[in-house]
Amino acid sequence: MRLLVTGGAGFIGSNFVHHVVRHTDYDVTVLDKLTYAGNLASLSGLLEQRVTFALGDIADAARVDDLVASADAIVHYAAESHNDNSLHDPYPFLKTNLIGTFTLLEAARKHGTRFHHVSTDEVYGDLHLDDPFRFTENTPYNPSSPYSSTKAGSDLLVRAWARSFGVAATISNCSNNYGAFQHVEKFIPRQITNVLRGVRPKLYGSGHHVRDWIHADDHSSAVLAILQRGRIGETYLIGANGEKDNRSVVELILRLMGRPTDDYDHVPDRAGHDLRYAIDSTKLRDELGWRPLYENFEQGLTATIQWYRENADWWAPTKDATEAFYAQLGQ
Ligand code: NAD
Ligand code: DAU
Predict the structure, then answer these.
(1) Cβ(174) – ligand 1 distance below 6 Å
(2) Which residues are catalytic?
(3) Any bridge partners for residue 27, and if so which?
(4) Mean of all residue pLDDT scores within the chain
(5) Rounded CA gap, 2 and 7, in Å?
(6) pLDDT for 18-60, tens place per residue?
(7) Whether the CB of 153 sits within 6 Å of ligand 1
(8) Residue whose CA lies nearest to ligand 1 atom number 5
(9) pLDDT at residue number 207
(10) Does residue 217 carry a pLDDT above 90?
(11) Cα separation values, 218 from 36, 224, 278, Å
């Protein structure tokens, strides 16, 4: 099996490539533009093995066509992925998430290539704190931000190319990931690296917003299961029953790092901030027998904190620019 993994130098894509090398004998080509969010160091040690790196843009049809021609399956992670950036400058989100996905789908159609599209629970909008239900595969789309609306649009493109052109596609929508190799712009690594630098964590608004955390390695095992055993044309939701409010997560990070649990700042809230995400992954569990390995969030977070402690060389070069961006926003 020869996989083409787009966005494989990013957070979740690189975790997936590590997972594939550990658990299969597949050959992998990573197609990545190496935007501010991509880092080849996340693949270090793998490029000498069964992994090849191709620098390029998923919206570049000629580049994509060559690579798709020699792949058995595409696993599509590449995206502009950060909500705060999408509020500041939406255009790259339209270009990569919509035109990039369209470009890949056209190549998959031409070459008859299996296509797995990696998406997000944010396409469903948000839930109230006391809603008794969670997102399922049948929840109507209702995205809130430029980021999530372009991810919703990319999902709809995949559905249309599957139905109208017979592309052998599956889609997964996953909840918030944490783990190694996550850019310091994101909530958990931002707070860990702030504490490591002696800076107080920054909580948007009141901090009562809820995210449903899953370890990136569990996301990878779910995507691999869908790629290998998922039914063509189906969507699967991926989640590990990890709901936590943001304030509790900041307090836990501070406690695990030996700081007083009130040693953080409230900063202005995100515009249009989704209140709560929660995934019901029954379909994935019942149909494909998938189970997460990291069911204890505190253990997973402890390992993640340790990873950032030991890998300052990986994150330090991006920290100042990230904090300068947040400083401009007063966050
Ligand atoms: P990330 O921002 O860490 O990585 C994105 C990668 O895509 C980077 O390596 C970047 O260089 C590359 N890229 C961006 N634009 C490109 C282009 N035009 N051509 C080629 N490569 C390009 O993102 P992530 O957090 O790893 O998310 C990966 C995917 O998973 C995204 O599709 C995202 O919507 C989805 N997802 C993320 C989460 C999460 O919690 N982070 C949860 C569910 C789904
Ligand atoms: O749900 C899946 C989504 O999870 C993915 O589709 C996105 O790509 C990924 O970025 C993530 O989106 P969020 O917006 O939920 O993640 P983020 O890490 O930006 O923020 C998590 C929560 O923490 C959110 O409620 C905003 C809050 N926050 C964030 C930052 C950066 C803070 O309170 N302080 C911060 O400094």
Answers:
(1) yes
(2) 121-122, 147
(3) 2
(4) 98
(5) 16
(6) 999 999 999 999 999 999 999 999 999 998 889 999 999 999 9
(7) no
(8) 10
(9) 98
(10) yes
(11) 25, 10, 16
